[in-house]
Amino acid sequence: MALKADEVYQAGLALDLDERTVVAHRLLASLHPEDDASQSEIDDAWRDEIGSRVDDILNDRVELGTFEQTRDKARALLDDLRK
């Protein structure tokens, strides 16, 4: 018998946070089965990206802003999208 979406959702809510996270990740990954990158390849790509960004910061190739500046920019972008 096939489960209905609401039944799966309700059952998922009964899981602890870690288990729900695993299930959510797997369900999202199942939406793109053609993506055959392994988790280690994905982790490596993210590690490279983070390293590159840290390197940019340490070598003054980017200008960092305060939290308040970033928040204000994000709010302005969202306001523009809502128009």
How would you sum up this structure, described in words?
With 83 residues, the chain is mainly alpha-helical. It is built from four helices and no strands. The longest helix is centred in the middle third of the chain and has 20 residues, at 39-58. The protein is extended and about 60 Å long. The termini are far apart.
Could you name the key traits of this structure?
83 residues, mainly alpha, 4 helices, extended
By DSSP (H or I, 4+ residues per run), the number of helices equals 4
Q: Which secondary-structure class do the elements indicate?
A: mainly alpha
Question: What does the overall shape look like?
Answer: extended
Q: Tell how many strands the DSSP assignment holds.
A: 0
Helix and strand pattern: HHHH
Radius of gyration: 20 Å
Uncertain regions spanning at least 5 consecutive residues: none
Tell me roughly what share of residues is in helical segments.
over 70%
- Estimate what percentage of residues fall within beta strands: under 5%
Largest sheet: none
Mean of residue pLDDT? 91
Termini gap:
46 Å
Summarize the structure in short.
This protein is an all-alpha fold and 83 residues long.
List the helices and strands and how they pair.
Blueprint: H1 5-13, H2 17-30, H3 39-58, H4 67-82
